[in-house]
Amino acid sequence: QETGNAEVRFMRLDLASLRSVRAFASAFLRQEPHLHLLINNAGVSAGGTTEDGFSLSFQVNHLGHFLLTRLLLARLQSCAPSRVVIVASRAHCAGRLRLDALGRPPPGPLSTFQDYCDSKLANVLHARELATRLQGTQVTSYAVHPGFVNTELFRHAPLWLQPLILPLAWLFFRDAAEGARTSLHCATHEGLERFSGRYFADCRPQEPWPPARDDRLAGALWEASERLVGLGEAEGSPSP
What we know:
It is a single chain. By secondary structure, this protein is of the alpha/beta class. The chain has a single domain (35-229), classed as Rossmann fold, CATH 3.40.50.720. Helix content is 41%, strand content 10%. The chain has helices spanning 18-31, 56-78, 111-133, 162-172, 176-179, 181-188, 215-229; strands spanning 37-40, 82-87, 139-145, 199-201, 204-206. It has a 5-stranded mixed sheet, sandwiched between helices. The chain starts with 17 loop residues before the first helix and ends in an 11-residue tail after the last helix.
């Protein structure tokens, strides 16, 4: 109603539930024959555990998006050229992926913040590995740093920290429309295919932190993520 566009449809999806992700993908594939663009935009910074037993931030920010993307890949390929945009963050520079404990809350007093940073590193690596596996398919992928945006990302921050964060957000953070610019650039700008797998900020490709350029780590994260979300060998597998 707000957009005035009768083609906008709402479909429920809870990334904190792998069951919900599977139900959404199944319903979408039944109802929609075309898919040219997938923007994995959701993000949360909060403690807690999901119904699947993973830390909330890591599942919502990475594992849920990973499963969703895999389940929709065949449709993206059949509708190629198509694109996947994964909203990451410059916070990936503080990420440390422990593959033997992936999806578990990191230890330490800053566990929630570290979990968020870890998920953002996973986002950048996901886009990188996706591009590698989809070479020659005309499906391209991009990781995006939207800038520091005044959204409700920090609504779950501790009460003692909110009086500090909220004034800073209003004074210095970008509004949501400005924060969407780089995502929209990667979604719609012509001629970006040669940058598939790259990390973008301020509407241009930039070099991410060194661990986010580690191809071996990207491949290992992909395989570990497959196991955690329960993907079989054939289900959602990229095909050239």
